[in-house]
Amino acid sequence: MAKTEAPVGAQEWVPPEPRSLDDLKEAAADCEGCELFADATQTVFGRGAPHAKVVFVGEQPGDVEDQKGLPFVGPAGRLLREAVDDASLDPADLWITNAVKHFRFELRGKRRIHQNPGPAHITACRPWLVAEFSLLQPELVVILGATAGRALLGPSFRVTQQRGKLMPWPASAQHPEDFPVAEIQALATIHPSAVLRADDRETAYRGLVDDLKIAASAVK
Ligand code: URA
Ligand code: SF4
Description:
The chain has nine helices and eight strands. It is globular. Strand 4 and strand 5 form a beta hairpin. It has one domain: Uracil-DNA glycosylase-like domain (Uracil-DNA Glycosylase, subunit E, 3-Layer(aba) Sandwich). By secondary structure, the chain is of the alpha/beta class. The relative contact order is 0.16. The site of iron/sulfur cluster has 16 residues, from helix 2 and helix 5.
């Protein structure tokens, strides 16, 4: 029965007055805000420039990220870096994080198969995102795919309809009060893993880069 209970959420592990992103990262390492910490190797916190103007939000760490403890260091990360470069975004001016900070998977034999995080995991993990935004105070957030969209905008988010458009955020979220942070802009696009899975990879990749060019045009 315990499995169906709502997770307690990350809030009690978030330091009340973190001085730095390193403080947050250290605290997040001990998070038990939902059950995902139990089977994953470690918390995968965001990384990048502490004064980044642009924050990228992905879904959750994958297998490689879970083992290395760093976000977007596997195949999706390689593709993302290439797209960032092709869109002329400055890679030194980014912070890259995930909506959910532990890897959710199902064991099939010895293989760990990625499972999408559920709404309860997204909600449980949100205090870490809020804390990251409060310290980073970026100008723009780039939402990578459906999970990040649900985390930052709400459950009615549809990537096909909302991608490639600048929107005010958190004002455009279903519950802006979930994010007590300064008003900035958001831009949603497809997740780099969706490009890797696409039948027509080239077109999907071009779409990702076109969206990221709009992101690039929104930062000074
Ligand atoms: N996919 C994500 O959403 N995040 C990662 O860190 C890696 C793959
Ligand atoms: Fe905490 Fe998020 Fe990990 Fe759940 S997924 S244990 S809320 S860091």
